[in-house]
Amino acid sequence: MRFLIVSLIAAGIIAPLAAVSARAVDLSRFLPGSTGGWSPTGEDRTFTRETIFEYIDGAGEIYLGFAFRRLLVREYAGGDKSSLVAEIYDMAVPEDAFGIYSHDQDGEDAAVGARGLYSAGLLRFWKGPYFVRLLAEKETEETKRVVFDLGRRIAAAIPDASPAPRMLRCLPAEGRIAATTRYFHKQVSLNTLYYLADENVLELDARTEVALARYGVSGGKVLLLICRYASPADARRALVHFGRDFFSGAAAPPSGTLVDEVEPKEFAAARLAASFLIVVLESPDRATCTSLLDAAASRIKEVLPWPVKPSRAGT
Q: Which of these, 222, 202, 192, 188, lies nearest to 66 by C-alpha position?
C-alpha cells in the first residue's frame, strides 16, 4: 500500500497532502507541562482546516493557502497571573511551514528553531513541518525569558529536518533584501503581500509555487516574483493572461519576454523560463528589468531540473 501511494504521488494522481495525513502526530507532545514556574490553564484547543476561522477570524484564508492541517493552542499562566499563549501549526511539510512564517518577518532575529523572530512579547519560528507562535499577554523581562525558554523546549522536541523551499534558490542573491523573501502558492497570499490586481492574472493555484523578494537598486526597491507552474504550457497561459490584463493587452512574443512602462517612470516585465514565469515590478527602467530577468533565468537553469510536485496546498 505504501508503495502504491508513493507511486500515485509521483504520477501526480494524488497530492502528497493525502499521504502525509496518515503521519499526523499529536502536537501536544511538543509542549511541556510547565516551564519556568508557568503552568497550563484550561484545556488544549485544536482547530482544523474546517474550524480555523473560529480561532483566526479574517486571517484563516492565509493558512488555507498552504497545506495547513491543524492548530493546537495552549495557554500558560505565571505566578503573577500573567499569561502567554502557545500555538503550534501543523503545516504538513517544511516548505509550507517556512511559507507561513515568511509572511511576516518583522522583529529581531531569534536563535530558535530553523529560524525565529521576536518582537514585543511575540516569538515566531518554524522547524520541520511546524510553525510556532508564542505570545505573552504583556512583555516583561520575565515573560520574555519564559517565552524563549518555552520556544527552545518546543524546538528541541521537534526532531524533523527543516529544508527551506527549493524555490528560494531561484532568487538571485545580489541586491536581494533578505527580510523581504517570501514563499507561497496562491493568490490569497500574493494579495496580502503585494496587490497586483483583483483578478488572478498570474493564474496562481494550489499547484503553483512562488518565491518573492525585493531588490535594492538605484532609484528604489524592485519586486521580483518567480512562479513555478505544473508545466510549461501552464506557465505560458499565465504569461498570456498577465500580458493581456496587466500590460494593456500586450501579446506574449515568441521570445516569451514582455517589458513595458506601466506607469510614468515605472516599468514591469515578465519572461518565460520552462515551467517558470519571472515577473519584475516597480522597476525604475527597462535595463533593471532586463538585468533581473537575466539573473533569475540564470539561477533557474542552475537549480533545474527537479521533479514537479503536485499540490500540497489546500484547494
A: 188
Using the structure block, give the residue that is written with the C-alpha cell 482546516: 49
User: How far is Cα 18 from Cα 5, in angstroms, rounded to an integer?
Assistant: 9
**Residues paired with 278 in a beta bridge:** 226, 271
Q: Is 253 left (phi over 0), alpha (psi -120 to 50) or beta?
A: beta
> Which CATH code is given to the segment(s) 166-303?
3.40.1000
For residue range 169-193, list pLDDT tens digits in order: 999 999 999 999 999 999 999 999 9
Q: Quote the CA–CA distance of 169 and 135 in Å, as a whole number.
A: 32
Question: 283 is written with which cell numbers?
Answer: 522597476
- Give the other-Cβ count within 10 Å of 36's Cβ: 17
Q: How many CB atoms lie within 10 A of CB 309?
A: 18
Pick the CATH number of 2-157 from 1.10.357, 3.40.50, 3.30.70, 3.40.1000: 3.40.1000
Q: Cα separations (Å) of 185 from 34, 203, 206?
A: 37, 10, 6
For the segment 134-156, the average pLDDT, to the nearest whole number, is 95
| pTM for this predicted structure | 0.88
Burial class (CB in 10 A: 0-12, 13-18, 19+), 137: middle
* Grid-cell match 524546538, residue found: 155
pLDDT at 310 over 60: no
